[in-house]
């Protein structure tokens, strides 16, 4: 038994590069979740469908002979359209936020099937010019997912940092922070919600386009549970780095780090012999615990206000 445990522990370092690379790819998706969940204060469940949409569009265009960059661009545009669909459901049709995301997610399952023609499609790195591949994860080449996705992530964070500093970006942040005050200031909150949802799902679809290249296939169920992974990355990033990363760009970076930590932990648990069928349960437990930590800290570990006031009074009298 101890020999088996030792062998599993020794296998962990070899599996870490792949876990970090996958964490970086999903980190881009987590940034999209951060935009809706934290900036817009909009619980968007579209991501479970838009991730697969990005992967499906990207892989089908490459199979038809299109350039990888063009395929990824079109996949991102497809993600923008999924966000537009959810936004119109919510703003134009008056459907509640959660239900709007569920309706879009449900419809995307059929759309993704029609895009791919069947439940899954595969692509071979030997026959197609892919941007990244799992096969290159331990090679010192530019196509190494660790290098390429890290560069892409940094570039995206720089662009988002600039964008949310513009007038439109600030109005989107204001819409999420206080929609009533934003409307009083003449801000079109409905338009900002739609635009924010489009931006978020565009990033999610872009992440799906990278993921299908990395793993060599797209599957109609590949986005199932994506919202849980995205929330886990956001919550873990905030719980660990919130006191260090106060700048907006660093907060986005913290979300990516949260995704990497999540996948490293998952990989370690798998290497130690956890049943793979329990991964969804583990993900739910991780999200629940990190969501509960701030509540527990406020309820059980914060000193009563009266006691603090009494101490200050005694110090003043002294």
How would you concisely characterize the structure shown here?
The protein has helices at 2-39, 47-63, 68-91, 97-116, 145-163, 167-177, 179-184, 189-215, 226-241, 248-271, 279-300, 305-317; strands spanning 120-122, 217-219. It is an all-alpha fold and 318 residues long.
List its salient traits.
single chain; 318 residues; mainly alpha; two-stranded antiparallel sheet; 12 helices; 75% helix; globular
Give the H and E element order: HHHHEHHHHEHHHH
Structural class, from secondary structure content?
mainly alpha
Strand order of the largest sheet: 1-2
What shape does the CA trace take?
globular
Radius of gyration: 22 Å
Q: Profile the largest sheet.
A: 2 strands, antiparallel
Give the termini distance in whole angstroms. 64 Å
Strand percentage: under 5%
Mean pLDDT: 85
Q: What is the helical fraction, as a range of percent?
A: over 70%
Low-confidence stretches: none
What is the count of DSSP helices, taking H or I runs of 4+ residues?
12
How many beta-strand segments?
Answer: 2
